[in-house]
Amino acid sequence: MSVQLIRVGHSPDPDDAFMFYALAQEKLDTGPLRFEHLLEDIESLNRRARRGELELSAVSIHAYAYLQDKYVLCSCGASMGDGYGPVVVANEEFTPQQLRDCGVAVPGEWTSAFLALELFLQSRFEYTVVPFDRILDAVRQGHWKNRPVQAGLVIHEGQLTYAQQGLRCVVDLGRWWKEQTGLPLPLGGNVVRRDLGPQTIALVNRLLYQSIRYGLQHRQEALAYAKQFGRGLGDPQTDQFVGMYVNRWTLDWGPEGRRAVEEFLQQGYAQGFLPHKPQVEFVPFPEPS
After folding, report:
1. Which CATH code of 3.90.1140.10, 3.40.50.300, 3.40.50.720, 3.40.190.10 fits the domain covering 4-79+186-270?
2. What's this model's pTM, rounded to 2 decimal places?
3. Which CATH class is domain 87-181?
4. Which one of 20, 80, 147, 188 has the lowest number of neighbouring Cβ atoms within 10 Å?
5. Could you tell me where in the chain the CATH 3.40.190.10 domains are found?
């Protein structure tokens, strides 16, 4: 039997590591597929996906608006913030008007956090792209490579650690989105390349589902694996962070999660932040095995 290589990209952070634990550690029978894991920051994965490089990849939901011709969203693997999400932090308070002009350090232009901040401000804003794990330092120092930085858009574990560096939260975008729409904020998902064909797409989707389910059923061993990607998080904070983003929507987006994706991208289009109306398509949910 021939073996097909599936290159899978995901972020080096605890929630993605938790989701992919069973696949990365060969806990599953993957049949005719062999998975090769590439760990990169989410903006690098967004760029790879725009070039169609990987067969399976974690991406930002914002980026999916530019990927729909090459990829379809898996029915599982959602990263959703239910009343919490990326935060804007600073050394002092800022009004929305001040945020537009103050110079915000952002983790990438195609991240969902970036689009969420545009929706919050209802406008474009001045920003500097900074590696996600350097944003807190850039805010404290007030600059990044000679560019002024007065606020930072924080994703990943920085959402739990910014106060330890003496910074304050200007806005929690997940909380704001929930208040505005009543929906969770769709931040990330996993996409599979369309040219694999229906049968392989279905198998990849099923194996991702099984990997997430395995992690949830073997939580302590999956957490032990995930904590090596926590960048300064202790065991309780790793558990907290994984619980924030591996939740009831991760096994299945469900009607509410799918509605959240469509609402998020539709608002981006309606306010002029996306160039075309998004067409959201999900792989069918796998039949019970």
Report:
1. 3.40.190.10
2. 0.94
3. alpha beta
4. 147
5. 4-79+186-270, 87-181
Instruction: Determine contact, residues 74/23, Cβ cutoff 8 Å.
Output: no
156 is catalytic: yes
Residues 6+ apart with CB under 8 A from 229: 12, 13, 14, 16, 17
Q: Of 10, 156, 218, 276, which is the active-site residue? A: 156
Task: Estimate to the nearest angstrom the gap between the alpha carbon of 126 and the chain centroid.
Answer: 22
| Single-letter residue type at 209 | Y
Give the H or E element holding residue 60.
Answer: strand 56-60
